[in-house]
Amino acid sequence: MRIILAEPRGFCAGVNMAIEALTSAIATHGAPLYVYHEIVHNKWVVDSFRRKGVVFVDDPSEAPEGAFLLYSAHGVPPNIRQQAQRRRLKTIDATCPLVTKVHREAIRFAQEGYTILLIGHAGHDEVVGTMGEASDSIRLIEQVADIDRVDVPDPSKIAYLTQTTLSVDDAARIIEHLLRRFPAAVGPPRNDICYATQNRQEAVRLLAAESDVVLVIGSRNSSNSRRLAELARSCGVPSHLIDGPTDIDLGWFSGEETVLVTAGASAPESIVEECVRMIRERFGASVETRTICREQLRFALPKV
Ligand code: SF4
Q1: Nearest to residue 224, comparing CAs of 126, 105, 142, 86?
Q2: How confident is the model over 23-40, as pLDDT tens digits?
Q3: Distance (Å, whole) CA 183 – CA 146
Q4: Measuring from atom 2 of ligand 1, which residue has the nearest CA?
Q5: Quick check: is 65 catalytic?
Q6: How far, in Å, from the CA of 266 to the mean position of ligand 1?
Q7: What pLDDT shows up at residue 42?
């Protein structure tokens, strides 16, 4: 058996920043410390912070007045910020700057009178946050068919934005259809799908071709992890999205395959290592890292 480790994989700059911000906040202020929704969409990361006394809440009212509340990497809508302010919570903003960029674009397009077609997944934290910035101006587009159905006041004044963690191919298909119905539509100055999402997808696209099976380490509620598993399948390669080694069914392998291993942007490298170790111990696989590109981006920590 041969294992190919896709590079880049795992933590992105936004996830690193959010985790470091929360770690530093606990060290500075102690527990309990409150986080609005999951800090990042990964079971291991969330569980490890729970053990350190972090309380994940779905509403600022769940945090006692005056407590510290940290906003997760996915960002929050303005009404959550207002609620936190009314409750006199001390807030720490660990929103990924690439998500904040999409919020700013939404605000600008709305101020300029555009109807914004936001391509994304209903209910995802990031989409809820972006829609909250200009709810009267934004229509959610989840699939090509939504473009035909969407009702807009002025078809010549349309802008589009996307969630940062979409499938690059799906987004391109939807935008192509959107531009057919609204030829004057304008997009963001730079692609909203973030560098980390694009790089991890590109690595799978290139390396799946020489693999028999793909393992994607990541949680089910991680949008970018799910897109990696779907992409591998669309390349004709069976893929499994797993949280960790206990999800691996050794019956998936005969022992002679080439297995591509990658990880979503919120999956810790230690879990990737555990998965690889388990397969190696069972099948004696060789391991080779294949680097598609190197990532050096880092984000400054918010003030804690
Ligand atoms: S996946 Fe992209 S947008 Fe999301 S936290 Fe990471 S860098 Fe930021």
Answers
A1: 126
A2: 999 999 999 999 999 999
A3: 16
A4: 194
A5: no
A6: 9
A7: 97
Tokens of 132: 């909250």
Strand order in the sheet with 286-291: 239-242, 213-217, 258-263, 2-7, 286-291
Q: Is the pLDDT of residue 189 over 90?
A: no
For residue 208, the one-letter residue type is A
Query: From CA 250, how far away is CA 101, in angstroms rounded?
Result: 43
Q: Report which ligand 1 atom has the smallest distance to the Cα of 97.
A: 8
Domains and CATH numbers, the chain: 2-11+195-291 (3.40.1010.20), 13-96 (3.40.50.11270), 98-181 (3.40.1010.20)
**pTM of the predicted model over 0.70:** yes
Q: Do residues 232 and 204 lie in contact, with contact meaning Cβ atoms separated by under 8 Å?
A: yes
8 A C-beta contact, residue 61 and residue 80:
no
Task: Return the closest-CA partner of residue 82 out of 101, 59, 49.
Answer: 59
Task: Give me the percent of the chain exceeding a pLDDT of 90.
Answer: 99
Catalytic residue among 126, 133, 230, 257: 126
Check if 228 has its Cβ closer than 6 Å to any atom of ligand 1: no
Q: Residue 91: CB partners within 8 Å, gap ≥ 6? A: 68, 69, 70, 71, 81, 84, 85
Is the peptide bond preceding residue 32 cis, with omega within 30 degrees of 0? yes
For 191-232, the pLDDT digits (tens) are 999 999 999 999 999 999 999 999 999 999 999 999 999 999
- Choosing from 11, 12, 130, 168 the residue with most ligand 1 atoms within 8 A of its CB, the one to mutate for a pocket test is 12
Strands (E), the chain: 2-7, 33-36, 54-57, 68-71, 90-93, 115-119, 138-141, 158-162, 213-217, 239-242, 258-263, 286-291
Query: What is the 171 CA–ligand 1 centroid distance (Å)?
Result: 16
